[in-house]
Every structure is written in C-alpha cells, then in structure tokens.
Amino acid sequence: MKKILVTGGAGYIGSHTVVELIEADYTPIIVDNLCNTSIQNIQGIEKIIDKKIKWHNTDCTDKSAMDKVFAEEGRMEGAIHFAAYKAVEESVQNPQKYYDNNMGSLKVLLQCMQENNVKNIIFSSSCTVYGMPDVLPVDENAPFKKAESPYGETKQLCEKMLKEDSCNSVALRYFNPVGSHSTALIGDCSADRPSNLVPIITEVAIGKREKITIFGNDYKTPDGTCIRDYIHVVDLAKSHVKAMEFLINNTGKHAFNVGTGIGVSVLDAIKAFEQTNKLSINYSIGPRRDGDIEQIYANSNLVKEKLGWEAKETLEKAMISAWEWEKLKE
Predict the structure, then answer these.
(1) How far is CA 289 from each of CA 13, 90, 201, 230, rounded to the nearest angstrom?
(2) Under 8 Å CB-to-CB from 81, ≥6 apart: which residues?
(3) CA-based diameter of the chain, in Å?
(4) I need a surface site. Which of 55, 94, 99, 135 has the fewest CB within 10 A?
C-alpha cells in the first residue's frame, strides 16, 4: 500500500479525503495539530474505516517536528497539503497570521520532501486565486488577478512556490465545499465560528444563532446576492484520490478546477436547505463583506479530461448531510 502524508488530515476536507484514500488502498498518515479542528474527526475516521489511523499531532510550520515525522514514516509516495487557515474575513483582519501559517507550512513541507526524496504533492488551492474573473465559468487559463483577500493571496503565492520547486504537483482549485459524509461521523469541526454559508445556515437551524446575515443584495446577479459553485465534500475528497493516481503516473506541474460548474446564489442555497430539510431559516440583509467576490463558478472540463473526475452528488444531498452533521456533532 502506498503511504501518503496528509497535512491537515483531521480537518473538514482532509478527513473526508483520508477516508477516500483508504477506500482506494492508500495508507494515509495524518499530520494535524488540531488548531482549527477536533479529535472528533480522527475518531470519526476510525469508526468509518473500523481501524486505527496513524496520526502525528504536529505543527506543519515546525521544521524539526516535521523532520521527525518523515524520519519515522520512511518512504512515502506523496503528500496532500491541506494544513492552512481558511477564513476569508479573518484573513482581512489578521493577514500576517495567514501569510506565516499558510505559506510557512508549505515551505517546511517542501523542504522535508526534498530532503526525503518525496516527489509528489497535491496542494489544496482555491478558486479565490482568480480574484474576480472576467469570464464565467472560469477555467484554468484565467489569469490570477489581484486577490480579494489575504487568504486568496496566500493560495496564489503557494501555487507560485510549487511552480518554483522541483516536485511534481497538482494544485486543486476548490470551489465551495459543502455537506458531510453519509455517516455524519466526520465534518467541519472548525474551532472558530463558521464563516462559510452552509455551516452558518445549520447553526441557525439548530438554534446556535438567531439568524444568518446575507452580506449584500445589491450585486449584479439575478437576486442581488453572491453566486458560488457548491460542491459536495465527498466529491471533492474523491478528486484528491484521482489527482494522486494521476501524479504518480505523470510528472510536471498541473492545476485543475474542482467544482460542479453550477452557480447558486446565497438566497437559492438557503432555499435549497429549507426545502430539503423542511425547515425555515431566519435571515436578514446586511452590508457587503470585505473580500467577497460577486460571482464565480467552475469550468471543470480539464479535470474531467485529465483525471476522469466529475461531481456526482447534488446540492440537495449536501444540504441533507450538512444538517445531519450539525445535529450529531459534539
């Protein structure tokens, strides 16, 4: 079985990817210091796979600690790098935190990979690298424009670091992951208050919040609210397995959009949650939020052509699983 190092493997997307890697006969090794997730996801992974998972409670920006991980684990086929802070709004308020962690962790990982002859890395990138795209749906040839947030800028700079490194790489540019595993045993355990739409919706539904504030209804979109491409997290996790298979057999630097190609407004996403779960969500309209892009959704032709991957799960299924996770999480 091929060993894959998974930094941030106890996080939201990381935990789902670990499960998919195991199902595809890889041996994932998690590195996660739980700074923005929970041991609940480690326990959930183990319940799903019915065995213990190898996990190092290690900060990816700590070179000496990462050296010990590589020394202990021996030969690895590749790495998947999720470990990063991810809140757009927080990055605007505290940009240095994002530069230090998001870029620092990748720098340390690449150094360790070079020193231990690990050639393949999949990088957790984001559609925010495109800024506000001129053409929709956006494809991988779109230029990187000025990032709308320090978070988006760190993803741009990390992709630049990968291009300048000697490793083989795939940057997966995610759109908006939503939903949870069908078992509701793993999900978004972010330590901070959620800043993404669907976790906020579920917190309103369960009573943790009084209402959701929609940031702006005066955008140039059909209903005035921002438009995003919402992808089920299990679909997204499966794209990493496909990317690792591709990278093992193909050298070079690659980037792929990972989305559904369907643009959904904030209001329509709320309605989808309400209709599928037969609930009513209290919301109000507030001012626009710094760092938000008006609308973006994916052209995913390249990932389908090169990796044989495409989104299969529906938004409705994602909304049902998101609600199940909210009801069952600790």
Answers:
(1) 25, 11, 17, 19
(2) 7, 8, 60, 105, 106, 109, 121, 122, 123, 124
(3) 55
(4) 135
Q: Is 151 a catalytic residue?
A: yes
Residue 23 in any domain: the answer is yes
How far apart (Å, rounded) are the C-alpha atoms in residues 219 and 93? 23
CA 150 to chain centre: 16
Nearest CA among 211, 233, 230, 237 for reference residue 325? 233
Q: Domain containing 97: what range?
A: 2-179+230-259
Residue among 151, 174, 219, 297 flagged as catalytic: 151
Residues contacting 45, CB < 8 A, separation 6+: 15, 18, 19, 53, 185, 186
Helix (H, G, I), strand (E, B) or coil at 46: helix
Summarize pLDDT for 213-248 with one digit per residue, the tens: 999 999 999 999 999 999 999 999 999 999 999 999
Residue type for 85, please?
Y
SS3 133: coil
Joined tokens for residue 240: 């990493």
Domains in the chain: how many in total?
Answer: 1
Is the Cβ–Cβ distance between 152 and 86 less than 8 Å? Answer: no
The strand pair at 26-31 and 54-56 is best described as parallel
Does 44 reside within a domain? Answer: yes
User: What CATH number is associated with residue 33?
Assistant: 3.40.50.720
Amino acid at position 94, single letter = N
Q: Is residue 317 part of a domain?
A: no
Cα-based distances in Å from 301 to 208, 271, 304, 311, 317: 39, 28, 5, 11, 23
The string of pLDDT tens digits covering residues 65-110 is 999 999 999 999 999 999 999 888 889 899 999 999 999 999 999 9
pTM higher than the cut 0.85: yes
**Domain membership flag for residue 266:** no
